[in-house]
Amino acid sequence: MAFLEIRNVSFKGVATAVPKPVKVVGEQPFFTAVEAENFTNVTGVVSSHVAPPGMTLSDLCLVAAEKLFEDTGWLRDSIDLIIFVSTSRDFYICPNTANILQDKLGLATSAVALDLPFACSGYIYGLGVAASMMQGGQLKRALICAGELTSRNQSHLDRTVWPLHGDAGSATFLEYNPKEQHPMQFNLGGDGSDWETIVCREVGVRFPTTADSLDIKKIEEGVERNAMQCAMNGMSVFSFAISRPGKCIMELAGHFNFTISDIDYLLIHQANKMIDEKIRKKLKLSEDKVPYSMPYYGNTSSCSIPVTMSSQIRGQLEAGVNNLVMCAFGSGLSWGAAHVFTDSICCTPVIEV
Amino acid sequence: MEIQDFIASIAELFEDTDANDLTADTRFKELAEWSSLIALSIIAMVDEEYDVALKGDDIRKSNTIQDLFNIVKENA
Question: Which of A43, A219, A239 to mutate to test the interface with B (most CBs of B within 10 A)?
Answer without folding.
Answer: A239
